[in-house]
């Protein structure tokens, strides 16, 4: 049997920390559940309950246990216990590619959370895990998310028409990439 993947703690700038999920992170899951978009594109429950919040966190643990990928809580580093404010994941695929996805709670948007997390997980994936290509997909209307990708060194490669179903309809997505050779 293969060993589970290990989700490490990674510094994300001076202010944030990427770390494994803990059951006491349900507060950020509750906040994300109230967002009109996050539950559409993730497994965050659209109707929060303490049981659903805990189930979300347990699903994040199974990602590494089942060798699917790495799901990190994005936490504020200076809060002592590292209060979670979002999520970022790195999902290795085939042929030397991995997908990255992220969300942050409404209460901390515009504070550089996603940018710091994306820089950290990208560096880790490209340098430490030696993944040659990272990809992420963003809807064209989601300017804050694609600007975050660009600030983190991702390059827009094009528009994937009708790429993904979200909320019961097919949506176009920008595809972004960051290569190991871009990082050096």
Provide a descriptive summary of the structure in words.
The chain is α+β, with helices and mostly antiparallel strands. The chain has one domain: Aminopeptidase. About 30% of the residues lie in helices and about 35% in strands. The protein has helices at about 25-35, 40, 50-65, 115-130, 145-150, 180-184; strands at about 10, 15-20, 70-75, 85-90, 95-105, 135-140, 155-165, 170-180. The radius of gyration is 16 Å and the shape is globular.
Please, how many helices? Answer: 6
Query: How many E-type strands?
Result: 8
Report the CATH superfamily.
Answer: Gcn5-related N-acetyltransferase (GNAT)
- The CATH architecture classification is 3-Layer(aba) Sandwich
- Look at the structure and give the CATH class: Alpha Beta
Low-confidence stretches: none
- Domains counted in the coordinates: how many? 1
| Sheet/helix structural class | alpha+beta
